[in-house]
């Protein structure tokens, strides 16, 4: 039997998101989420998607750890005839947030890979430990199956040194592995390639600015399919204004808060990562709510929106300069895909750069990738729904292929 299925696992500290895909056509067979692992109120929500899809099923019971969570997921999949012991399962693809400088490609996981991901924990203390737990649990469950790590940072490892180094003392930076790694790479890779497709071109032929605007947000400049700059840095805190993260601030704000505000490093970490960005500015991090408040005349929400857009525009301009020629600007993720006012405001006033949106095309709601600039515009503005799971599955499958090929 040909193994064509890939299970994609995205393991967080208290959650596991999963999708099972058939790589013959990229069809989704099932998807689900286990949340609040380790709490009394854990929940598994599983949705079968074969044959037009079925009713979602829920388990509401304490799930102690990732092992119990994965076993429960395996049980749900088996219930749909999609069990993890199926010979049709080719591999498990794991999202791994931080791959450092050296993981430039998806990588089949072995002990050496596990060690290196572990060594990166100091630069990704929130994410890598959870990713590792997910990997170890899945490996224990199916030790014979290829398991592949797909790194959020990998797409950005092509950035030149001029973009990936901070201008700080080189010895100190190297000692502590301080450099700009970038994140959301799987999304930037998928969206930049899909944007080229939308333009009827090969990725090598086009320069694209990708704006991944979700609760976390990042921009990237992609020249001929190769990432040359991105807005997140050592951690996902740098760059754009996000739902709860500040993005760029003068680093001296931190010493100031320590010296004058008597705050600890941990308190400032929480302030900048969890209590800043849109939520810090106006108390809401959901763009829908912010737009609703603006429509009611709320000035605080208006200012939060303006700060968000101002930063976004600065990055568009900067990446235009980095690329020299821009063929497309692509909006993706929750805000980018859904918030027409954000897209309109982000390019407004940039007509001299060839950037503009058609009001009518911009207001259409759709799940399809589409161009929203008028035909005459020099730069295409696109909305491209991201699909990180499909990209992880594709990269995983491209690496391990089906079992026939592996044993050939
Ligand atoms: P993500 O992190 O990609 O899942 O994006 C989540 C964010 O997308 C939410 O916090 C909202 O701010 C935003 N979002 C989702 N749907 C809409 C919508 N219809 N209009 C505006 N913003 C939206």
Task: Explain the overall architecture.
The chain has 408 residues and is an alpha/beta fold. The strands form 2 sheets. The chain has an 8-stranded mixed β-sheet with strand order 5-4-3-2-1-6-8-7, with helices on both faces. A 6-stranded mixed β-sheet has the order 11-10-9-12-14-13, with helices on both faces. α1 crosses α3 and α10 (287-295) crosses α11. It has helices at residues 66-79, 111-119, 128-141, 161-164, 170-175, 185-198, 252-259, 265-274, 277-282, 287-295, 299-323, 333-338, 340-347, 359-363, 388-400, 403-407; strands spanning 5-11, 16-22, 27-35, 43-48, 57-60, 89-96, 107-108, 147-151, 207-213, 217-223, 226-230, 328-332, 370-371, 380-383. Residues 403-408 have low confidence and may be disordered. It has 16 helices and 14 strands. The chain folds into 2 domains: 5-151, Nucleotidyltransferase, domain 5 (2-Layer Sandwich), CATH 3.30.420; 200-388, Nucleotidyltransferase, domain 5 (2-Layer Sandwich). The two termini are 13 Å apart. β13 and β14 (380-383) form a beta hairpin. It is globular, with a radius of gyration of 22 Å. Residues 214-215, 243, 285-288, 333-335, 338-339 line the site of adenosine monophosphate.
Task: Provide a quick synopsis of the model.
The chain has 408 residues and is of the alpha/beta class. Helices cover 38% and strands 19% of the residues. A hairpin with a 7-residue loop joins strand 3 (27-35) and strand 4.
Give me the CATH superfamily of the largest domain.
ATPase, nucleotide binding domain
Order of helices and strands: EEEEEHEEHHEHHHEEEHHHHHEHHHEEHH
The averaged pLDDT comes out at 95
How would you write the strand order of the largest sheet?
A: 5-4-3-2-1-6-8-7
Please report the number of helical segments: 16
Overall structural class, as computed from helix and strand content, comes to: alpha/beta
The shape is globular
Radius of gyration: 22 Å
Proper CATH architecture of the largest domain: 2-Layer Sandwich
Residues in helix, %: 25-40%
Beta-strand residue percentage = 15-25%
E-strand count: 14
Taking pLDDT < 50 over at least 5 consecutive residues as the criterion, the unreliable ranges are: 403-408
- CATH fold call of the largest domain: Nucleotidyltransferase, domain 5
Bound ligand species = adenosine monophosphate
EC number: 2.7.2.1
Organism: Streptomyces citrinus
Enzyme class: transferase
Keywords: Kinase, Transferase
């Amino acid at each position: 039997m040909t193994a064509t299925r890939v299970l994609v696992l995205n393991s967080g500290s208290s959650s596991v998101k999963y999708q099972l895909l058939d790589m013959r056509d990229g069809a989704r067979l099932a998807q689900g989420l286990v949340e609040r692992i380790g709490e009394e109120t854990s929940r598994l929500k599983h949705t079968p998607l074969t044959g037009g899809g079925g009713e979602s099923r829920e388990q509401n019971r304490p799930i102690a750890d990732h092992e119990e969570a994965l076993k429960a997921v395996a049980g749900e999949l088996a219930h749909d005839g999609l069990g993890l012991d199926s010979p049709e399962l080719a591999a498990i693809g794991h999202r791994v947030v931080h791959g450092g400088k050296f993981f430039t490609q998806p990588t089949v996981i072995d002990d050496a890979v596990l060690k290196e991901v572990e060594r990166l924990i100091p630069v990704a203390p929130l994410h890598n430990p959870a990713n590792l737990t997910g990997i170890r649990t899945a490996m224990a469950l199916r030790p014979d199956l290829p398991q592949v790590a797909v790194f959020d940072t990998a797409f950005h490892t092509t950035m030149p040194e001029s973009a990936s180094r901070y201008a700080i003392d080189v010895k100190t930076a190297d000692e502590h592995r301080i450099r700009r790694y970038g994140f959301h790479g799987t999304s930037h890779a998928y969206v930049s390639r899909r944007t080229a497709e939308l333009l009827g071109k090969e990725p090598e032929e086009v320069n694209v600015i990708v704006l991944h605007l979700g609760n976390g947000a990042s921009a990237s400049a992609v020249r001929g399919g190769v990432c040359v700059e991105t807005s997140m840095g050592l951690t996902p805190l740098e760059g754009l204004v996000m739902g709860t993260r500040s993005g760029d601030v003068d680093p001296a704000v931190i010493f100031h808060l320590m010296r004058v505000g008597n705050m600890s490093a941990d308190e400032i970490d929480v302030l900048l990562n969890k209590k800043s960005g849109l939520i810090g500015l106006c108390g809401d991090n959901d763009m829908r709510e912010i737009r609703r408040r603006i429509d009611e005349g709320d000035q605080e929400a208006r200012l939060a929106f303006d700060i968000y857009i101002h930063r976004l525009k600065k990055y568009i301009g900067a990446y235009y300069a980095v690329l020299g020629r821009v063929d497309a600007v692509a909006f993706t993720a929750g805000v980018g895909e859904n918030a027409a006012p954000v897209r309109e405001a982000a390019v407004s006033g940039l007509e001299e750069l060839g950037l503009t949106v058609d009001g009518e095309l911009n207001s259409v709601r759709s799940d399809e990738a589409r161009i929203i600039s008028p035909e005459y515009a020099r730069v295409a503005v696109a909305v491209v729904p991201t699909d990180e799971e499909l990209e992880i599955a594709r990269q995983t499958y491209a690496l391990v292929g089906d079992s026939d090929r592996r044993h050939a």
